[in-house]
Amino acid sequence: MTIQSAPAGLGASGREALDGYRDLARSLPIEDRVRLLTGRTMWELHALPQLGLRAIVVSDGPVGVRGTGEDADETSALFPTPSAIAATWDRRLAIETGRAFAHEARSHGVDVVLAPQLNLQRTPVGGRHFECYSEDPFLTGEIGTGVVEGLQRSGVAACVKHFIANDSETDRTSYISEVDARTLREVYLAPFERAIGVGAWSFMAAYNRVDDGVETGTMTAHRHLLVDLLKHELGFDGVVVSDWAATRLTEESALGGLDLVMPGPRGPWGDRLLDAVRAGRVPEGEIDDKVARILLLASRVGALGAAPLPLEPAGAARDLIRSLAARATVVLRRDERDPVWDRPAPARIALIGANAVRPHVLGGGSSTVHPAHVVTPAEGLAARWPDAELTVHRGGDTRALAPLLDLAGRSTGRPAVRVRRLDAAGRELGVDELADWDGWLRDLPDEVDAVELEFVARLHEPGDHTLAVGTVAGHRVEIDGRVVAEDDGRAGVEVVLDSSVNNPAGVPVVVHVDEPRDVVIRSAHRVTRAGGYGNLVRAAVRHAVPGPGAEREIADAVAAARAADLVVVVVGTNEESESEGWDRETLALPGRQDELVERVLDAVPDAVIVVNAGAPVLLPWLDRARTVLWAWFPGQEAGHALADVLAGAVEASGRLPWTLPARAEDVPVPDAVPVDGRVVYRDGVHVGYRAYERDAIEPAAAFGAGLGWTDWRYDAVLGVETHDGGGHGGGHGGGVVVEGDVDVDVLVTNTGQRDGREVVQLYLEAPHPVPGDLDRPARWLGGFAVVDVAAGESRRVTVRVARRRFEVWDPRLDDWALPAGSYGIRLGRSVRDLRLGTAVRLGLDAVEEG
Ligand code: BGC
User: Fold this and answer.
1) Strand partners, 522
2) How many CB atoms lie within 10 A of CB 244?
3) CA distance 88 to 651
4) Tens-digit pLDDT profile for residues 428-487
5) What is the pLDDT of residues 515-561, one digit of tens each?
């Protein structure tokens, strides 16, 4: 066979390069072409040595780059959660984050990072809320695509996910999102469209189905959205990858715009697709287009032809992570008379809360990476104030499930676990003795049908111990001679997709101990056959030691608070609440944390309350606390970042990228539970804060809110200039007629005692009455700018507002339209703290009127 030489993937525009790669594809045997379209493994594609194509390697995303190993031995830098990156409102920092991801990717041998996630925070209970950037489409697009740019400038592909209307987790592999064309264009598609604008090299098709008014179909086979819209209309030249194990249809997905089925090697394509091509049901041209897209991706990441782009230089990931986490911290309340950053170094610190003991540094699910270390709040505060006496108090457990049994700490001198493998007839295939146990057996050979496990743990503490084995699939669990759970069911890939495999509860039993003694735990498990995720057994062995009880722990914490001169209470969510795979059922903090805060505040009114959560939780005590910080899932440098903020070493410049509700009943979209299989996007374009604005509902903290450590004055709007389109600008405010982008200049002054960083936010308001009968949001984010200003100084800040920010998608025209009239421009510190206003006249009617 003669192989033509590969076209220049990078030099040529993507479209031209695709044409060349299509020709190259045609020169390959059809078997090779089709094989390339399904992964070789969970994280790798096939190689084609005859073309010089090596295997492309992919990995999750989006809080770091996990790598291709499934166990905790492969460590990676753990970054703050995406919502925290968005809370900086700083595209430059997002680009830096992407660049750091590229370094991580290269060091793990990864070519494609499965990030960023550009879905929206449509409901605060959404399980992957923390993985998304914002409830606002524009902010999501600006920050999320910064990550894309940072990655790709260093020759590592972003895989933008999950296309599209995949904004909640309940029944995530089956629900139909029903979204009208205008809502899709203006809200949910907007960040993805921006990603195409910055040249994203791959997209992930989501699990869900979509009814967009034209076609109802699963997103791995949605011809209207993948082919007509994404590839043809928007000109996407990259690869559309299926979400993991999402593709079930053969021909429909091949004809519907999907390019790559992951994971492999099994899947609905392979021989079945080959047959369909041979029978003429799928044209070869479709296959060639998919192959060409994969070859173009390969050339972009250096897996085919030239070496990849060199990595752009980046500083140490640790430093970036620490500064991101500190800067992203949102000051929700601050003590005006005695700001915490201005206090003398503390002599006695009381650190309180379950999340102070075990900070929750990342959300659950596929985004998990395994950091080599996590700096706890205690370590961070001790490093900052080495002379202080620091005590840590849990103040009651917040987890419903017992922690994992620490087999090393309960050693009996024997191996941690004995594993007996059995075939379907119950015959022994082999026995292994393992020195430690992380709760998983993975990649079991097909002939293994069941395993039996035996653990022996020494229980030292007198009293009642709780033990359990959390598992999925058929099992039998015997603890201390008692059979406590039995089930003969089978399980498959669904337990991975709904995340139930990640944190299984088990049936708890109480074992009473008077004298230290050994307890035997035996369990038998049916192997879970999880498709591309392999054959696995899950056994989370849980153990809670006898404890004083929550009442006593809270009382101890309050006593410690009274005796300290710096009290820091860290409340938050945990792996039982925020995770991929399910949506939350409540916005309340788990356990008795609200009571803990109230009792500490009764004793010490200036205690600092820190919220360690990704998505909104209700803070019923917010108005009585003097200092409240929202610290996100901060990543591996959690403790250092917290100490930097408390000591004022860093300006806590975070601004909420979503609305913090005051009451559960105020939430515009309180859940996304499908009804008759459908999630209907009735809220239309009024997502997040837009609904609060329309209905004049007071949130606990508004979209964009964050006080920082200094004070700001918004002095004046200095000018409104048209960027292009021929309008005449330069005036003070109203009366300007424009057709293109608009620049708004504003003067702000840092009136506080400290140097600071402000996020100048610009909101737009539609002309009154709204032209046409389109229902526009009360106000929406039009632009923003981040500015560093020294104490006492003023700065002129320009906020660019792109023409698209004014436009509507007019379903009658099937196109964007710019309704004419006078648009309000409001500038301020949040959508509820607007300090300055002006107006701009847009559109031809406005010219005639003028
Ligand atoms: C998630 C994706 C992820 C993939 C691979 C899926 O379950 O939805 O976000 O990239 O798994 O881990």
Assistant:
1) 454, 478
2) 23
3) 11
4) 999 999 988 999 999 999 999 999 999 999 999 999 999 999 999 999 999 999 999 999
5) 999 999 999 999 999 988 999 999 999 999 999 999 999 999 999 99
Domain segments of the chain as ranges: 321-398+552-668, 417-544, 712-849
Q: What is the structure's pLDDT at 532?
A: 87
What type of residue sits at position 809?
W
Chain centroid to Cα 811, Å, comes to 31
The CA angle 485-489-492, to the nearest 5 degrees, is 120
Q: Whose CA is nearest to atom 4 of ligand 1?
A: 244
CB 60 less than 6 A from any atom of ligand 1: yes
* Model confidence at 726: pLDDT above 70: no
Residue with tokens 């419903």: 400
Q: How many residues does the chain have?
A: 850
- Whether 2 has a pLDDT exceeding 50, the answer reads no
Dist CA 365 CA 356 (whole Å): 22
321-398+552-668: CATH architecture: 3-Layer(aba) Sandwich (3.40)
CA of 159 to the centre of ligand 1 (A): 11
Active site residue 594: no
- Compute the distance between CA of residue 432 and CA of residue 227 in angstroms, rounded to an integer: 51
How close is the Cα of 635 to the center of ligand 1, in Å?
20
- Ligand 1 binding pocket mutation candidate from 169, 243, 582 (most atoms within 8 A of CB): 243
Look up tokens 């031995």; give the residue.
73
Tell me which DSSP letter residue 55 carries: P
Superfamily of domain 417-544: Galactose-binding domain-like (2.60.120.260)
Mean pLDDT of the chain, nearest integer: 94
Task: Choose among 355, 328, 319, 371: nearest CA to 78.
Answer: 371
**Whole-angstrom distance, CA of residue 783 vs CA of residue 116:** 21
CB 499 within 8 A of CB 581: yes
Taking the C-alpha atoms of residue 397 and residue 671, their distance in angstroms, rounded to an integer, is 27
Residue 688, CA distances (Å) to 181, 282, 507, 787, 833 in order: 19, 42, 39, 26, 17
Taking the C-alpha atoms of residue 144 and residue 91, their distance in angstroms, rounded to an integer, is 8
Q: Residue 131 has what DSSP assignment?
A: G
Å from CA of 495 to ligand 1 middle: 13
Nearest alpha carbon, ligand 1 atom 12? 366
pLDDT of residue 696: 98
243, 259, 449, 741: the catalytic one is: 243
Instruction: Give the alpha-carbon dihedral of 430, 436, 442, 446, to 10 degrees.
Output: 0
Domain 712-849 maps to which CATH number in 1.10.10.10, 3.40.50.1980, 3.30.750.24, 2.60.40.10? Answer: 2.60.40.10
Check if 246 has its Cβ closer than 6 Å to any atom of ligand 1. no
pLDDT of residue 9: 38
Per-residue pLDDT reduced to its tens digit, 208-220:
999 999 999 999 9
Going from the Cα of 44 to the center of ligand 1, the distance in angstroms, rounded, reads 14
- Residue range 663-674: mean pLDDT, rounded: 97
| Confidence band of 738 (pLDDT split at 50, 70, 90) | low
CA distance 532 to 58: 14
Cα(238)–Cα(257) distance, rounded to whole angstroms? 11
pTM: 0.95
Residue nearest to atom 5 of ligand 1 (CA): 244
* Contact between 134 and 658 (Cβ < 8 Å): yes
The reported pLDDT for the residue numbered 739 is: 63
Where residue 803 falls among pLDDT bands split at 50, 70, 90? very high
Say how many C-beta atoms besides its own lie within 10 A of residue 787's C-beta. 18
842 versus 70: the higher-pLDDT residue is 842
Identify the band that residue 848 occupies on the pLDDT scale cut at 50, 70 and 90. Answer: very low
